[in-house]
Write a structure and sequence with these properties.
Strand order of the largest sheet: 1-4
Distance between the termini: 48 Å
Number of domains: 2
Order of helices and strands: HHHHHHHEEEE
Length: 150
């Protein structure tokens, strides 16, 4: 932001506003997206005295942080795993269920569905992983019958 203002306001330089934005964006090894961001940041600062927030190291929380949502999703996954195997599509289906949507509404989350990529991240976060069904292996006298483990 300071670079843009310095280039634009310097009386010895004759850069237009757009040129100043472009030079600073390129100096930061970015393109037009950064140019638009710089434009918005400078104008927000001038009009509202608002500085942009730094998001480095920011960890976005998920609805899985809520214990009720976590328990409901884990319970549904456990039910599904008993009858076979689970996939990311199953997680997507669980999220669209009425119970989960009610829990989302209580958290003021207005997502009707999640993507497959998000579902895969949730499975990893919940420590679910793929494994083959193993019959005939006995540990301490009990048969192991794992499909998915967590």
């Amino acid at each position: 932001m300071i670079g843009v203002l310095n280039l634009f306001l310097d009386p010895e330089l004759s850069y237009t506003w757009r040129e100043a934005l472009m030079i600073v964006a390129k100096a930061q090894e970015h393109g037009s997206t950064r140019m638009h961001s710089l434009h918005a940041w400078v104008l927000d600062f001038i009009w509202e005295r608002k500085l942009p927030l730094q998001s480095y190291g920011y960890i976005q929380q998920t609805v899985l942080e809520d214990n009720n949502v976590l328990q409901e999703v884990q319970g549904e996954l456990a039910k599904k795993a008993k009858s076979g195997f689970i996939s990311a599509k199953d997680v997507c289906k669980i999220v669209t269920s009425k119970i989960i949507q009610i829990l989302f509404a209580r958290l003021e989350v207005h997502k009707l569905k999640i993507s497959l990529a998000t579902a895969k991240q949730w499975l990893a976060k919940l420590k679910w992983h793929y494994s083959k069904k193993k019959n005939g292996i006995y540990i301490n006298g009990h048969e192991r019958d794992d499909v998915m483990a967590y």
